[in-house]
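Take a sample.
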Amino acid sequence: MDITLSSFLTAIIIIAAPLILAALGETLTEKAGVVNLSLDGTLLLSAMTGFAIAYETNSLLLGFLGGAITGGAVALLLAIIGVWLGQSQVAVGFALTFLCRDLAYFLGTPYARKQGPQLEILQIPILADIPFIGPLFFSHTAVVYLSFIAIPCCTYFLYRTRRGLILRMAGENPEGCWARGVNPIKIRMLYTIAGGFIVGLGGAGFSLAVKPGWGHPQGCEGIGWIALALVIFGSWHPIRVVIGAYFFGLLQLLGIYFQDFFSGIPPQIFQVAPFPLMIGTLILIHLSNNTKNKQLSRWMRILNGRPPKWLGKVYHRS
């Protein structure tokens, strides 16, 4: 029983790892007041770039670096057009996500269905041999370990450092940044790019670890929209965002198991089931704010949060 439970939980952790990176990257960006709707295209383009570079160079490190730089480059375009030039972040994000998606499938055609390098499991000596706990936390690929490290680092940075305070101030009160001698536009651009860099790592994690290889469609298509929903689901707080990512990983894994139990049902139904379930959860959270049931409202308020005041808004110094 313990072995089965351990394997089940381990699979959830593996599935959720690159999604955690993407969602945390978007959390940093949105806390600075910028909404990046290009995530889905960015993940696809980063996954393709990471796999192509790793395939050509036989270097996983260069593959991940290429994926991260790709994510940062897409975010740079958003930062220049949506933040510096003050155009609609929503419109720019939508345009970029479709552009990146089409570029990924067009440029990635030569690498479709090819066998390339992929991350191997790294077992931490001694710790990996601990029953139940070892396989769960100490026997994974580098992507999973990176997701573990990113959770406390992101939380500590946002709420325990001066730079994290400045980041949050740029999203809440840009004029307050000027009063402290900080340019909020530069801060917004910086963390838009930094968030895109982390999203790019998540994209490379899909094609080099979780769902190795490249093809059409790629396994991470649609995940960018889930990452955006998780930031709302998690109330713009890293810990809650990560809980949402593991919840989505649970839904995906249950969909795989249900395919075996209900073989007469088309597998496509189970593949898309996690997406409407996440949407339904968001709707439930919204409705709980207006419900007269105090008990339900009290419990759902835990998941409810307020977005940064300047999220998605164009800012020019008055």
Notes: The longest helix spans residues 2-31.
